[in-house]
Amino acid sequence: MSAIRRLSVLALLLAAVVQAAERPNILFIYSDDHSYRTVGAYPQSYPWVRTPTIDKLAAEGVRFEYAYIGSWCMPSRATLLTGKHQFAVESMRMEGPYPGSEYDPAKSPFWPKVFRQNGYFTAQIGKWHTGTDTGYGRDWDFQIVWNRPKHPETSAHYYYDQPVTYQGGKTEMLKRYSTDQYTDWAVDLINGKDRPADKPWYLWLCYGAVHGPFTPADRHLEEYKGIDFDTPKDVFAPRPGKPEWAQKVNHWERGPNGQPFFKGRSIISWVQQYHQGVLALDEGIARVMDALEKSGQRKNTLVIFTSDQGLAWGQHGFRGTKIAAYDANIRSPMIISMPSRLPQGTVVEKPVNGVDIVPTIFSFAGIEQPWKFQGQDLTPLLENPDAPWERPAMLVATGQKFGSDTNVIPKGAGAFHSDVPWYVMIRHGKYKYVRPLIEDLEELYDLKADPDELDNLAVKADFQDKLKEMRAMAISELRRNGAGFVDNMPQVKSGL
User: Fold this and answer.
1) How confident is the model at residue 414 (pLDDT cuts 50, 70, 90)?
2) Which of 41, 123, 185, 198 would you label with 266, given CA atoms 20 to 30 Å apart?
3) What is the pTM of this model?
4) Quick one: three-class SS letters along 251-301?
């Protein structure tokens, strides 16, 4: 090779390295059934909660007070792979034994393939819950995945004995504690194993914790002994002013001194176990962040941490339950950090959605949206939490139905997890509005005055104008996003 040729090749390599350095890496850490109340950085957490790493991430970034990512595991992930609400994810469907599911990648393309086409190295590690086709070789350059839909017989194996598929090929049983193993794989990748050095990277690290059976690592089984907290006020019915469906939620029985019990264990025991499971998550995130720091990549890496949804423990009568539109059930922790570009230690009070994450990632990467995302780029709020933000946050729960399969609302609204009907939820300012897709009461809450959502303003005469305003806002958002069922919604009952 001539000297001129060698210089040309070197110049091209240097240009690629410079381009990679300018385009940020993106680390998206995703936990499961993980309530914002378990994170010490959130003021609603119990005073005994210990999450030093996640708290540090919040101190070094932007914490979102009200994040609504999805209604349960599968639609949350479908949203984050498409940038669309559940009712707009076409061809996604449940099929076969739960959680079996399928989709047509031509009708429901996942955006990581666009990153691949634009020079990013894409990787996914951990839980997969969006069709048996995980997209290896199309959407992902690198993938070590527990494919739940493909292996329904082990779908409850969140912590041990998982059939893990490596790079779209061999599948082997994972015996190790999953949170720790996923972390090891992520650290290896960050440190350069199995990825090119001249490309920016996107890693979606999908932990299975802290999903049921809420199994802590053995090293944490003695943690949080002696904890205590107030029993949620509406753990037992009746729940004045709430819809008929909510009156029937009864997951707990009265134990000694009226304390809620389930399967012979107190609510305190269950909550202790749940929080023990978060400790390994915090430790894993610590190791991942340490790898970023020591490898010199922290400065040029956008870090996003959130969960598919929250989880209720006693609130509104629920036990280890997501789905319902109450913040106790559905609200996730969410932190975005990049100290080289974003302010540190700030809090965004404006409510946001899972669909907002995808256009934000594209904005940071400088890549054009390949199709119309239904969310809004969060960059203005990241740079200034007081920036104008008029669009409401919307979450629509349509059970196990996706795309145009939601156009016809089934009788009883296809309740999923046995208790909760389909619904439309809108958050705007301090108010939350919930419209059930059955003939029942609407719900309206002032989350500043009533953060526990005990006082349904929809049944009060003084709030009928606000109720009509929020109802109209919900319909407007459904129309704007092309919800096929918007003109077929059942009538609601009046609470007056």
Assistant:
1) low
2) 41
3) 0.94
4) CCEECHHHCEEECCEEHHHHHHHHHHHHHHHHHHHHHHHHHHHHCCCCCCE
